[in-house]
Specification:
two-stranded antiparallel ribbon, globular, 3 helices, Nuclear Transport Factor 2, Chain: A, 135 residues, alpha+beta
Length: 135
């Protein structure tokens, strides 16, 4: 894989390296940071780029069920295909954490474009479940 294809970018969260300069990430770490940043950004959050991000934040108050999981998977796939051209999204699967019903794990299977190098990324997404038995 050509490192020029992937490039380098600022570490996220931003940090300082040993020389006092901005810490950079390269290769696969750059792609993972980029994908996490896309998923963690809600559209409209960046004034100069209002369409950037992923629409999963619209589901914070949704129930953690199969319908919500399917919608989140579609939002993730659409956002990554639009905003991260260096990867091919193979599959997006969303499952509920058995120990915490408010946490959905977004399992992303992807390949670095132009390679046969399958990888995966797990992105936790938290919903605010409705209170049970409320008045």
């Amino acid at each position: 894989m050509s490192e020029e294809f992937i490039g380098a970018g600022w570490a996220f969260p931003m940090a300082v390296d040993a020389t006092g300069g901005m810490a950079l990430v390269r290769r696969e770490r750059e792609l993972e940071d980029s994908m996490r940043l896309i998923l963690a950004t809600a559209p409209g959050e960046r004034p100069m780029r209002p369409e950037f991000g992923c629409g999963i934040h619209d589901y914070v108050f949704a129930s953690a069920d199969a319908t919500t999981a399917g919608r989140i998977a579609a939002e993730v796939r659409d956002a990554l295909e639009r905003w991260e051209p260096r990867v091919d999204v193979v599959d997006v699967d969303v499952g509920v954490d058995p120990s915490d019903r408010a946490c959905l794990f977004v399992h992303i299977t992807y390949a670095i474009r132009g390679t046969n190098d399958p990888r995966n990324l797990v992105f936790p997404f938290y919903v605010i479940p409705a209170e049970e038995g409320g008045s």
